[in-house]
Amino acid sequence: MHRFAVSVAAAAVLVHGVAFAQSSPKPSDPEIAHIAYSAGVIDVEAAKQALEKSKNPDVRAFAEGMVRDHEAVNVQALALCRKLNVTPADNATSRSLAEAAAAKRAELAKLSGAAFDTAYVANEVAYHKAVNGALAQLLIPSASNAELKALLQTGLKLFQGHQQHAEHVAAGLHGDHMAAKPKVVKVSIENMAFTPAAAAVRAGDTIEWTNRDVVVHTATASSKAWDVSIGVGESARVVVARAGRVDYYCKFHPNMRGEVVAR
């Protein structure tokens, strides 16, 4: 129901907004809905700018994912608002986000090539960190409606994967991938969900799932690339052999889904 990709300045707006809100009356559900929806629209706009300006395949793939995911989540958000007969309420935080986003897009519009790619992705990393913190510390705890809270929680899992993906792209842009050694990327299984829902890795990295639930789960690739069983309190690993995107699920609980994006 929310997504973002503005700037460090916009991130600061939200971070400061969190600090202020914690010492003031908490935001109402309509205000939370507007903040979340506005942030999603902002990230889509930033991604579309990247698709217009960037020729880097990793940056473009990331931006395409932002458009796809945020537009889908915002569709769910609007549907929930209609169902609950809630009208998102404009507020100071959502207005600040919009103003900062416009300023950042104007700044990025002056850049091109590698300079644009680096600035865009760095902004995505910083903003996702701030937004994920705001979701966890303010928006989710403040939401009164159970369905709104659930949508926010689902969004947080997705956005944590986005942050991880942005960090990987940023490392690649700085040339870190040339010297990087294979690493272990950890995914937690808790409350019947994979977290992060989208894991960004490089070919050769290892995915490690740790089951913190009270039932057995699997991580089963739709492509049949892997199928591992993870007992209660146990972990299982898979080496990602090649670049590409693989969707996976739990065979025992098919509603549990995740994805691995390797480059």
Word description of this protein:
There is one protein chain. With 263 residues, the chain is of the alpha+beta class. It has 2 domains: 171 residues, Up-down Bundle (Ferritin); 81 residues, Immunoglobulin-like. Helix content is 56%, strand content 17%. It has 7 helices and 9 strands, in the order αααααααβββββββββ. It has a 5-stranded mixed β-sheet. A 4-stranded mixed β-sheet has the order 2-1-4-7. Strand 1 and strand 2 form a beta hairpin. Helix 1 packs parallel to helix 5. It starts with 7 loop residues before the first helix and ends with a strand.
Provide a brief overview of the structure.
With 263 residues, the protein is of the alpha+beta class. Helix content is 56%, strand content 17%.
Lay out the secondary structure.
Layout: H1 8-22, H2 29-53, H3 57-84, H4 92-109, H5 113-142, H6 146-173, H7 176-179, E1 184-189, E2 194-195, E3 198-201, E4 206-211, E5 217-221, E6 227-230, E7 235-239, E8 244-249, E9 257-262
Parallel strand pairs: 1-4, 3-9
Antiparallel strand pairs: 1-2, 4-7, 5-6, 5-8, 8-9
For CATH, the homologous superfamily of the largest domain is named as Ferritin, core subunit, four-helix bundle
- Biggest β-sheet description: 5 strands, mixed
Give the helix tally.
7
Strand ordering within the main sheet: 3-9-8-5-6
Count of structural domains: 2
Tell me the CATH architecture of the largest domain: Up-down Bundle
Q: Low-confidence segments, ≥5 residues, pLDDT <50? A: 1-24
Structure characteristics:
disordered N terminus, 9 strands, Immunoglobulin-like, 5-stranded mixed beta sheet, 56% helix, flat, single chain, alpha+beta, 263 residues, 4-stranded mixed beta sheet, 7 helices, Ferritin, 2 domains
